[in-house]
Amino acid sequence: MKSVIPSLLACSIFFAACKKEKTEPIFNDKNLAPLSVEFDNIVGGTNLYLNNTTYTNASGEDYTISLVQYYVSNFRVYKADGTSYTIPQNDSYFLVKESDPDTRFARLKVPEGDYTRLVFILGVDSLRSTLDVDQRTGVLDPSGGMDDGMYWGWNSGYIFFKFEGMSDVAPADGSGQHKFRYHIGGFGGYNAPTINNIREISIDLTAAGEAKVRKDRSSNIHLMVDIGKVLSGQNTISIATHPSVMFSDFSVHIADNLAGMFTHDHTEN
Amino acid sequence: MKKRTNALLLILSFIILMVSCKKDIRGLEEDLRKFLGFEKPVHFPEPAYHFDTNPVTEAGFKLGRKLFYEPRLSRNNTVSCGSCHIQSSGFTHHGHDVSHGIDDRLGRRNAPPIMNLAWHGTFNLDGGVFDLDLQPVVPITTFEEMDETLDNVLEKLRAHPEYPSMFREAFGSPEITTATLLKALSQFMVMCISSNSRYDSVMRNEAVFTATEQAGYTIFQRKCASCHKEPLFTDISYRNNGIGIGFNGDPGRYGVTLDESDRYKFKVPSLRNLKYTAPYMHDGRFYTLDAVLDKYAGGMTYVQNIDPLLDKGNGQYGIELSAEERVQLKAFLNTLNDEHFVRNKLLAE
Question: What percent of chain B has pLDDT over 90?
């Protein structure tokens, strides 16, 4: 008897804890808790390494990667019942840089709850792209240089996705390097319609793990971002044929590939 | 009795004159002391610039002016905005078809004037920039112009003995940011207003055209005004004026919209201050006004997207202009030169 009471107690505590785990808090958009989204850049089945690893695209061209940078923004999460929460605009812009591992997390605050879907855009929405320069702070500050900058001065707008590297099949540029450059942007035009390379990404979290967001822990949605898809996605892009793609009609083919880079690997709750 | 009345009137008018003179002088002194900020000329339309998010203040304007003439905006501190936008040349690069920037690198277009930009909603010859605040990013970062980064400019200004206090005076904080740098430059640029030409005096009923000028005005209204709309003398649209594709094949507005119907279109330039702003056209290919008029009057051929207004309907393109009409038109165009603008000390370095 003496020994039964503690074990019963332990058991009930255990059940209580389990029960707490399973009960989803009531949705309250004032009751915010941390949720991070991790953008883990890979190429095919391997990690992405800058400069010293050779990859091969669907056209059979070998290449190395020197730079990968992209904007992710306008995050929204959905619960199974359809309830959604949109991260406030001012906290919703992130620039992921492969060269800086700290930037791979988009750190959000969302109401406590269990989320089954994550939606965001690859790029910067047209509204923010045309807002007063006062509102272009942080990662949206157009002050970056030509090398790692993500802003087009001559055609006001952000470069959503910047991808550069070397390939023998790329023609030698002025400096003698066989470099390829893909700078993908275009929010649809300010006063004359033009290409829109903003892509909305919608990720179903049910298969690989819902995000159970609570105040006392930090839920992390771990996404794999297959940079190999830039050249080898729904469209096959040849570096030899298109060594440099910037603001042009062709860039739409690459933007369509970008939308297919993201897969949900798992969620750390 | 009559004599006395006359004397009284004389004395009275003298007093009135004295009083009004005094008032005039006092008013003038006040004008010199007091910075008036942005004032819309009475015969101009409402400006396009967003003054609500960047009102012009004296401190902001003076800071913007200093920045406009600041060579630190360029990579090796040699080129300022004022290098290619010279006030005495109507804020253009007089005598240069295309401008030379840093290290004497040549650009591909003729430097447009910093003039009446508060009324423009798009900028550059292709309209790629849609906010005046964002415009300086282009010359600062362009390889052939200043070849610098905004980050470096901000660092140089932060380390400068005068700028932090000037930014504090203008924007309330000594912190120098991309936004405050660009807004200060806008405050200077919107103040570059040309509205004091002889034409403007006539419009304000302060002067009258000569018979030749008036005849030229009539020709202008009939043959030029649909694109060169008064009082800015541009409708701020993008058109192909039929001069033919330039040597560098510059596609103009197409580069911004990727719309085939915009290929070879450029912003309609203002006709103000032509006396100071040669050469003409987006690539500066015409050195004289007569060369421009020759092209319109005789030498025009079809080119993709040529403006329909230039279609004479008989397979020919251009604008009919007799020798007499040309003299009259040039007399009118001459009334658009604004000497006050090119000499205004407020806008000088």
Answer: 80
Comparing B106 with A19, the larger pLDDT belongs to B106
Preferred mutation among A128, A134, A173, A183 to probe B, highest tally of B CBs within 10 A: A134
Task: Please tell me the distance from the alpha carbon of residue A31 to that of residue A42, in angstroms, as a whole number.
Answer: 35
Domain B58-193: state its class: mainly alpha
> Which of B129, B130, B257 is the closest to A194 by Cβ?
B257
Contact A132 B255 (CB under 8 A): no
* Distance between start and end Cα atoms, chain A: 38
Closest-CA residue of B relative to A250 is B258
Q: Kindly indicate the confidence band of residue B107, based on its pLDDT and cuts at 50, 70 and 90.
A: confident
- pLDDT of A146 above 80: no
Q: Does the pLDDT at position A234 exceed 60?
A: yes
Question: Strand pairing partners for A244?
Answer: A181
Mean pLDDT along residues B298-324: 92
Please tell me which of the candidates A145, A192, A193 has its beta carbon nearest to residue B149: A145
Question: Per-residue DSSP letters for B39-77?
Answer: ---TTS----S-TTTS---HHHHHHHHHHHT-GGGSTTS
Q: Which amino acid is at B348?
A: A
Give ranges for CATH 1.10.760.10 in chain B.
58-193, 198-341
Mean pLDDT computed over B224-234: 98
Q: Which fold has domain B198-341?
A: Cytochrome Bc1 Complex; Chain D, domain 2 (1.10.760)
Determine how β-strand B266-267 pairs with β-strand B238-239: antiparallel
CA distances from A9 to A2, A3, A4, A20, A29 (A): 12, 11, 9, 16, 36
In this predicted structure, the answer to whether residue B272 has a pLDDT above a threshold of 70 is: yes
Q: Which residue of A has its CA nearest to B258?
A: A194
Q: Determine, for residues B256 and A130 on separate chains, whether the beta-carbon distance falls below 8 Å.
A: no
Q: Which of A142, A190, A247 sits opposite B137 (nearest CB)?
A: A142
Domain ranges of chain A: 26-268
